[in-house]
Amino acid sequence: MPDRIKQLKIDGFRGATQPLDLKFDENKPVVLIFGENGSGKSTIVDAIESVGAGTTAFLNDWRLGQGKRKEGYIPAFGKDLADVDISMGFGPNIYSAILNNRGIQLCNTEDRPTTKVLRRKSLQAFMNADPAQRYREVAAFLDIPQIEIAEASLREALKNVQKQCETSLAYSQAKESLHGLWEAEGSPGLEEEHDAESWSRQQSMIPTEQLQDDLEKLKISVKHCENLIAKKNAIITIEQQLAQAEEIRVEKEKQLSAIELSDGEGSAELIKLLLDAKTYLTKSPDTLCPVCEKTTIDSAELVQRLGQRIDSMESLKQASDAISRANKTVRNYQDHLDQVMDSFLDDAQIAQQHFYPATPETENIEQLRLIR
Q1: Is 345 exposed, middle or buried (0-12, 13-18, 19+ CB in 10 A)?
Q2: pLDDT band at residue 144, thresholds of 50, 70 and 90?
Q3: Which 3 state secondary structure label does DSSP give 266?
Q4: What single-letter DSSP state applies at residue 264?
Q5: How far apart are CA 14 and CA 115, in angstroms?
Q6: What kind and span of H or E run contains 23?
Q7: Which pTM was predicted?
Q8: Which residues contact 347 (CB under 8 A, 6 or more apart)?
Q9: β-bridge pairing 5-11 and 20-23
Q10: Phi/psi of residue 284, each to 5°?
Q11: Low-confidence winner among 12-26, 165-179, 240-254, 325-339 (lowest mean pLDDT)
Q12: Which of 86, 98, 152, 311 could form a disulfide linkage to 51, CB 3.0–4.6 angstroms apart?
């Protein structure tokens, strides 16, 4: 038969204004305490909780003024903290408790029994709560070791199932990724009814040094491809710019033709001749005519006269200058295109030797150079 409370002594605690010595029948499995309101039932229960658990949980339901320490109201009327003394006989031992400013202080007797009090507030919460909350309200007062063991087993089983699901999901994702890699490689071995896993096993047997060497070659291959793509895009851009420059030159030539029709044929050639003559005479003044080499000329006066004639043909001069600039722009883009194209062909030749090192150099690239 398990140990039970034998005796409870209370002095100076709550309603015990006089020493109380209460004896219990150890042979009774249940003890019922009843009495009128204010007769001390709660005092007995709170004393058992205090000496057994060292708590004053009953104070939580008390309402006192702000700044008041509830422990100061535990002593019975006319008693001080030092007058409070509780002792409980349980099994072969006596357990005691006193009260000071720090609260309940317990003795050092070993194997102190566990005491729990189910209060009215918990019972009200139990009645008003949903089933899950009801269990939480009274779980601390129920001795259900087998249920707890079963719950622990269920929690462990749930963890195992979740772990298995995560492992299965990871396996499925890995298998899907592996199949994608196998298809990216062209599904090798498909004609022999090999699958991605068989292929991966074969790949895993390849020495890492060889794989590393293959990886470096692939990196170089990618650089070659990226370089050729960049050069190709540059060629396309320059070709577009060259085409625009050609369109501008054609438009300027149309404008010049319109001016020539209004000023007379040969005006463009004439102004070009005048400009060339002025430039020549300005840089290399002669006393003889540079054409017949017999007539004596005044180069300074002739340069002045040439300038007057050129000024009188200003619109034609502007159109001629615009064509000169357009021609220069076209030549610049063409030269740039030739340079980039040569660079592209050089890189293409290097890439060809990289991708087909065992194949003799073909004449395709050189033929492209000749075509250009």
Answers
A1: middle
A2: low
A3: coil
A4: -
A5: 19
A6: strand 20-23
A7: 0.39
A8: 224, 227, 228, 231
A9: antiparallel
A10: -135, 75
A11: 165-179
A12: 86
Phi-psi region of 58 (alpha: psi -120 to 50; beta: other; left: phi over 0): alpha
Burial 172-197 (b: 16+ CB within 10 A, else e): eeeeeebbeebeeeeeeeeeeeeebe
- Across 83-229, where does the E strand assignment appear? 85-90, 93-100, 103-106
Q: Count CA atoms closer than 13 A to 372's CA, side-chain side.
A: 16
Question: pLDDT tens for residues 29-71?
Answer: 888 888 888 888 888 988 898 898 888 877 777 766 666 677 7
Q: What is the Cα–Cα distance from 157 to 165, expressed in whole angstroms?
A: 12
Tokens of 98: 């006193």
- The closest of 27, 31, 22 to 3, measured between CA atoms, is 27
Does residue 31 contact residue 24 with C-beta atoms inside 8 Å?
A: yes
- For residue 67, the model assigns a pLDDT of 61
Contact 50, 115 (CB under 8 A): no
Report the C-alpha gap between 129 and 188 in whole angstroms. Answer: 65
Read off the tokens for 272.
């070009």
Give the 3-state secondary structure of residue 3.
coil
Cβ proximity of 313 and 329 under 8 Å: no
170: amino acid identity, one letter: A
CA distance 228 to 275: 46
Tokens coding 298? 């005044």
Measure the CA–CA gap between 191 and 174, rounded to whole angstroms.
24
Answer yes or no: are the C-beta atoms of 96 and 107 closer than 8 Å.
yes
SS3 of the chain: helix, strand, coil, percent, to 5: 65, 10, 30
Give the count of alpha carbons within 13 A of 292, CB side only.
Answer: 4
Place of tokens 């305490």: 33
* Residue 32 token pair: 């019922």
d(CA 203, CA 214): 13
Task: Dump pLDDT digits (tens) for 156-178.
Answer: 888 888 888 888 888 888 888 87
With a CB cutoff of 8 Å and minimum separation 6, the contacts of 11 are 19, 20, 83, 84, 85, 86
Tokens 């960049």 locate to 230
Rounded-to-integer distance, Cα 229 and Cα 172, Å: 38
